[in-house]
Amino acid sequence: xxxxxxxxxxxxxxxxxxxxxxxxxxxxxxxxxxxxxxxxxxxxxxxxxxxxxxxxxxxxxxxxxxxxxxxxxxxxxxxxxxxxxxxxxxxxxxxxxxxxxxxxxxxxxxxxxxxxxxxxxxxxxxxxxxxxxxxxxxxxxxxxxxxxxxxxxxxxxxxxxxxxxxxxxxxxxxxxxxxxxxxxxxxxxxxxxxxxxxxxxxxxxxxxxxxxxxxxxxxxxxxxxxxxxxxxxxxxxxxxxxxxxxxxxxxxxxxxxxxxxxxxxxxxxxxxxxxxxxxxxxxxxxxxxxxxxxxxxxxxxxxxxxxxxxxxxxxxxxxxxxxxxxxxxxxxxxxxxxxxxxxxxxxxxxxxxxxxxxxxxxxxxxxxxxxxxxxxxxxxxxxxxxxxxxxxxxxxxxxxxxxxxxxxxxxxxxxxxxxxxxxxxxxxxxxxxxxxxxxxxxxxxxxxxxxxxxxxxxxxxxxxxxxxxxxxxxxxxxxxxxxxxxxxxxxxxxxxxxxxxxxxxxxxxxxxxxxxxxxxxxxxxxxxxxxxxxxxxxxxxxxxxxxxxxxxxxxxxxxxxxxxxxxxxxxxxxxxxxxxxxxxxxxxxxxxxxxxxxxxxx
Length: 602
What we know:
By secondary structure, the chain is an alpha+beta fold.
């Protein structure tokens, strides 16, 4: 029965893969480890003592029947040692010595075995997760995005109007740029925390989906301004278990899902470079107030017409307004960093799979000369780790944009254009301040003394990467927010599979423990020996009954004295000779008196 309990328990663990108590009991065990240890040890001790006692009784009965036939004294001594759980150390009798040592060791391992088997351990339970998310890589989404532009009233998908975006792109760029110097960063968007940047993903786990708000009629898709993102990922229990999943102490997830990033290369524009040109010479003062100093009012405004060459002599103009004094001069503490976003490749014969950003800093940002950043967006598969309320992503594979991604490319480039415009204020630029502050706070050199420093370009690359990745997260969130699709169900042609693993931290028993099988070996051996002794007693019984207890020292002395058993003295040779003496227990009754004595076999 005891061994059956042990193997039944072990079998349940192996069959189900794990056994875990209720969450209430798990928390109780976690909060009271000493009491748990005492309880498990007590139960293991009771089971061990019971098993050892049954073996002792069975061995004693077998020895009673064995001494009814001739047996050497050394064999009798070994049998008595077995009933008492002790040993004999006689190298001359190797088998008997080994047998008693073996049984002695097994008896001592009983408690350790039961304790190992019954003690719960902390483990991480892996559960497969499957589901789907929005696929932004195919022609189906490209068509839907184009139609959404028309529904929003945009005549041109490269229109300037991207007011649907908030400061998320800027904050994502700042967080990503800090990575250049190893600064830790957490980017928050829609109630979700991302490590450094979003990597273009959207949460696929309920606990990490962020905001639970329901957007209004105009708050979905390109009008997204926050809300509950629909999650379509579910656990897939094992085929052989009907056990409910424990809530556990914590849950972590590792998911393979769709992402988006960019490879960005920023460098200086040479004075002789004709492919990339940025004309910043066209500006005029549109407002001047000579009396501004007297009434502390606005002194002046300058209108800039920045023109960039986007290939094949295709100019793009962007207007900026900055604050100046009444004479048209900028304040030395102010800064101007204009950017022109060319929405396609500089070579118009190429497929539109990338875009270009031309920039130049003035005044406080003069450390950034005329520069060009070639942005090549990439569709990625990422491993997103959800842990401690933070999402961290690692790129597994990536592919460049194809012709069917032209609408997506236009959106990403449009977001970059919107950020390049909105980041520049009257007296400063968010992009310029980001480059300046991160560099200045992490180095001992002055950024103005390192014109053309590759580290500054690396900062700029990371900033735009953060903006690009945010654009994809924004887009996915807008189309996956509740009420974006009927019944909150993404159409099949727009679904991208999501797979991964949920890891539940809990306490209990798991089949991955390699100690469970060795733990039941001592009980198994003792049980086999117990049944073997019992079977021997049954086969030898045949009506034989005796009250003689061979494990009782007094009984042994009385039987030796009653038979006038003569042995040699305690000399070395005498002990050796006595061990080979063969005796048997003779029982007789006379006048209602029972005589038990050892009779020497000649």
